Amino acid sequence: MKKGLVLIVEDEVSICSYLEEIFRGDDFKVAIAENGHAALNILRSLEVLPSIIFLDLMMPVMDGHRFLYEIQQNPENARFKNIPVVVVTAAQTQVDGHVVAILRKPPDLERLLELAEKYAL
Q: How far apart are CA 62 and CA 31, in angstroms?
């Protein structure tokens, strides 16, 4: 039986492929966006929202910081506000907005699955 939907927002093809393989291999449904703008378009098109978002911070077009602002502060996107977000980044950074975890790249496989299992059932 398929588990919840995971949205991966990541511009690096190798990291994106790695995350997709991990989650699909553990029976999660997966949606992928190459930047924050594409992720917002995906969210707006879905009838059933993702259970969790794995978000890179440094991306072209719309970075992760702006994406977090858009889903957590912009009233137009209020229905996305409570989706748990896990930041996956190479940078040591502070994050504005509510996130459930910050993972350093490359992310630990067990921690990724632990977070996905916790939120995406």
A: 17
| Residue 102 tokens, joined | 């910050």
HSE at residue 67, side-chain half, CA atoms within 13 A, is 32
Please classify residue 23 by burial: count the beta carbons closer than 10 Å to its beta carbon, then call 0-12 exposed, 13-18 middle and 19+ buried: buried
Contacts of 86 (CB under 8 A, 6+ apart): 52, 53, 54, 55, 99, 100, 101, 102, 103, 115
| Selection from 117, 37, 111, 104 nearest residue 77 by Cα | 37
pTM: 0.90
pLDDT (tens digit per residue) in 103-112: 888 888 899 8
- Cβ-Cβ contacts under 8 Å for 67 (sequence gap 6 or more): 9, 36, 39, 40, 55
Distance from first CA to last CA of the chain, Å, rounded? 11
For residue 49, the enclosing domain spans 5-119
Number of compact structural domains in the chain: 1
Q: What is the CATH number of the domain that holds 23?
A: 3.40.50.2300
